């Protein structure tokens, strides 16, 4: 549904994207992840047709952002850092104003619906300049959703939010994706937040894709060692057990190094022949640990 092929973008003499390739399936939530300055915002702006690439092609539902920007913007919503809200106007007036620009039918109904959905209805008459960061973020999301877009581009949607605010926004996005099958591309450099909601990930660095795939694919490709902590009564008299390196990290706590998840069950069965197991946990399965492994290999 969205494909990006060999896209290059430069600003003046600075090359910002140098051969971006990735695709996003319809109805998926994709995390575009990378350090500051890696080109995430630039990629979003290219996809939204606001700027054009020097080289490469992009396709969204059969349209090209470079030539059919207006069509793309009708089918998509975008939330960027600035959000483009009018601080001197109330929440309601901001949304009414944009609903007219977007030609939203039954604009007032839609505005009220979104204000309620984003918990802003009680504050609808206050000037946006007096809103908290969280309220502004939620209003920016509401604005992007006025015309019920099929695709949503979000640039750091949780920046500046407290834990409750982050949970609310991510929860809303997950519901939106589930109920409306909205395709969502989220740029972020906060990996932990995206673990639960993305179907797949694109890891970027310096304007290139270092790795991309679903969590399962990334685990298979980059999780070479599984660090398994086991709470057990097992006595050790060696630095390996059942062929796996192991180290004692507590009175009843052992840390096994396995080469794949497939080795977990046989190991646990072996231990259970001898003694009890109370719990097991894979220590290095966070998205962050995969990200660091991707970057480590790239720098090798
Ligand atoms: N309009 C522009 N003119 C000149 N340089 C730009 C422009 N937009 C972006 N850049 C440069 O392109 C590089 C990538 O910026 P971009 O905002 O795409 O990165 P990012 O991954 O979104 O970073 P961040 O996580 O900090 O938002 C940066 O070095 C930035 O200074």
From TrEMBL:
Highest classification ranks of the organism: Bacteria, Bacillati, Bacillota, Bacilli, Bacillales
PANTHER family for the chain: ABC TRANSPORTER, ATP-BINDING PROTEIN
Tagged with keyword Metal-binding: no
GO MF annotations, alphabetized: ATP binding
Organism: Metabacillus rhizolycopersici
Record carries keyword Ion transport: no
Domain annotation ABC transporter: ranges: 2-231
SUPFAM superfamilies, per the entry: P-loop containing nucleoside triphosphate hydrolases
Protein name as it appears in the record: ABC transporter ATP-binding protein
Keywords assigned by UniProt, alphabetized: ATP-binding, Nucleotide-binding, Transport
Family (UniProt): Belongs to the ABC transporter superfamily.
Source organism, top-level taxon: Bacteria
Cited Pfam families: ABC_tran
InterPro entries the UniProt entry points to: AAA+_ATPase, ABC_transporter-like_ATP-bd, P-loop_NTPase
């Amino acid at each position: 549904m969205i494909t990006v092929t060999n896209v290059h973008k430069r600003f003046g003499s600075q090359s910002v994207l140098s051969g971006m390739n990735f695709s996003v399936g319809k109805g998926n939530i994709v995390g575009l992840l990378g350090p500051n300055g890696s080109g995430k915002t630039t990629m979003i702006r290219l996809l939204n047709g606001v700027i054009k690439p020097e080289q490469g092609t992009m396709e969204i539902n059969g349209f090209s952002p470079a030539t059919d920007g207006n069509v793309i913007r009708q089918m998509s919503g975008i939330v960027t850092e600035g959000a483009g809200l009018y601080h001197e106007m109330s929440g309601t007036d901001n949304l009414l104003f944009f609903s007219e620009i977007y030609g939203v039918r039954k604009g007032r109904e839609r505005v009220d619906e979104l204000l309620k959905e984003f918990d802003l209805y009680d504050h609808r008459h206050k000037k946006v300049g007096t809103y908290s960061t969280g309220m502004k973020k939620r209003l920016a999301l509401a604005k992007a959703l006025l015309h019920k877009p099929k695709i949503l581009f979000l640039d750091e949607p949780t920046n500046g939010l407290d834990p409750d605010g982050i949970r609310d926004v991510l929860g809303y996005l997950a519901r939106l994706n589930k109920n409306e099958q909205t395709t969502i591309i989220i740029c972020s450099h906060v990996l932990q937040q995206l673990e639960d909601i993305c179907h797949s990930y694109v890891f970027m660095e310096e304007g290139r894709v270092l790795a991309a795939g679903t969590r399962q694919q990334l685990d298979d490709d980059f999780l070479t060692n599984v660090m398994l902590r086991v709470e057990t009564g097992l006595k050790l008299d060696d630095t390996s057990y059942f062929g796996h390196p192991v180290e004692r990290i507590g009175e009843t706590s052992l840390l096994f190094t396995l080469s794949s998840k497939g080795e977990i069950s046989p190991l646990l069965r072996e231990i259970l022949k001898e003694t009890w197991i109370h719990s097991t946990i894979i220590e290095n399965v966070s998205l962050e640990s995969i990200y660091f492994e991707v970057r480590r290999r790239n720098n090798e």
